[in-house]
Amino acid sequence: MKLVIFGLTISSSWGNGHATLWRGLVRALIRRGCRVTFFERDLPYYAANRDLNAITGGELVLYRDWPHVTSRARREITEADVAIVTSYCPDAIAATEMLAGLQKPLKVFYDLDTPVTLSRLSGGEDVSYIGPRGLADFELALSFTGGAALTELKRRLGAAFVAPLYGHVDPDVHHPTAPLPHYIADLSYLGTYAGDRQASLQALLITPAMRRPKRRFLIGGAEYPREFPWSSNIYFVRHLPPGEHAAFYSSSRLTLNITRAAMARMGWCPSGRLFEAAACGTALLSDRWEGLSAFYTEGSEILVAQSTEDAIAALDLSDAEIGRIARAGRERTLDEHTSGHRADQLIEILTAARSRSGVPREERIA
Question: Is the dihedral of CA 175, 180, 186, 191 positive or negative?
């Protein structure tokens, strides 16, 4: 199977969660015999923070603007079995228009930001990566979020066939490593600053830090404002490339997962970083959202906090109990949530969609 992907970025993990997910998934697809070409507009802020320059066994096409890559894109689409357009791709609408009306390849839209998409539509805002026809030109819509989001993609955007494709982790990249002194923390949090996560961050990390002044807290991520309420026992790392994530998590006694507000309201929204931390053998402390129990068992594989008191209670658990939860969470992750598992699921979904749509199939699909 040859897949052509028009995405936000795979080359830079700066300020986005797409790149790490695509790297793991593309690597797993290539290992299964797929051919992958990824189109990415060469945006300045990603170019200045690029931590991947080529796809081993695949092709990364960096382009200045759509007119300069149109011929190459059309040629790759003609040779492809599947073409995937993603949320936040700067040229998503242009790529969709190029695909419209073609029998081959199978046309897929993958929304890695479904709750944000639906929230903006509800507020009457423009969604730059979806055109006036919604998802009517695609035979399949994949969603990073399950549950009610799938129904909404059909009802509001006219998706013909929908399926969840959740986050995942590449265990070759995220695994237990030796702790590093500058990352050691009783509770860490890795994530780009977002205003709609600030209340939860305040309740589950900042206030606990004030109430446990002898504990060490660590935040890693981009775009934090100067007026952020730091305290003397909260430390900061401005940006961590994926190669540093394992050391970051492995140096934490507990690590915090906070879900974007729109995603938490929708539910069924495990972030890729949830799986990454667990794969590193770090105990997870997460906010609560519908569907969480489908991915981890509360109390035995993950800790859940809805208040400052919950977070402090987790911090005060014994090392033995936190170690037990960390081991169970890692085992569940490796059993169900790796990039390889998602690649297998994707191939299965694409096979079903190709049969349903009548797109010609090769004898060997992967």
Answer: negative
309-323 average pLDDT score? 98
CA distance 122 to 190: 29
CB 154 within 8 A of CB 162: yes
In angstroms, rounded to a whole number, what is the distance separating the alpha carbons of residues 303 and 314?
A: 7
Could you report how far apart the first and last alpha carbons of the chain are, in Å?
5
Instruction: Evaluate the omega torsion of the peptide bond into residue 44 and state whether it is cis, within 30 degrees of 0.
Output: no
358 falls in which pLDDT band (50, 70, 90)? low
The number of residues in the chain equals 366
Cα four-point dihedral sign 198, 332, 162, 86:
positive
* pLDDT tens per residue across span 202-260: 999 999 999 999 999 999 988 899 899 999 999 999 878 778 999 999 999 999 999 98
The Cα 260–Cα 217 span in angstroms is: 21
How far is Cα 285 from Cα 105, in angstroms, rounded to an integer?
42
What distances in angstroms separate CA 341 from CA 167, 225, 334, 335, one per listed residue?
Answer: 10, 37, 9, 9
Give the span between the Cα atoms of 302 and 322, in whole angstroms. 9
**What would the pLDDT profile of 11-25 be if each residue is shown by its tens digit?**
998 878 899 999 999
DSSP state string for 215-247: S-EEEE-S---TTS---TTEEEES---HHHHHH
Distance CA 172, CA 37 (A): 22
Number of H helices, E strands in the chain: 14, 13
Q: Cα(60)–Cα(37) distance, rounded to whole angstroms? A: 6
Alpha-carbon distances of 66 from 21, 50, 90, 93, rounded to whole Å: 24, 20, 9, 11
Contact 188, 256 (CB under 8 A): yes
CA angle 312/314/319 to nearest 5° reads: 125
Confidence of residue 359 (pLDDT cuts 50, 70, 90): low
pLDDT digits 0-9 by tens, 131-178: 999 999 999 999 999 999 999 999 999 999 999 999 999 999 999 999
Q: What is the mean pLDDT of residues 112-132?
A: 94
Nearest CA among 238, 235, 234, 231 for reference residue 193: 238
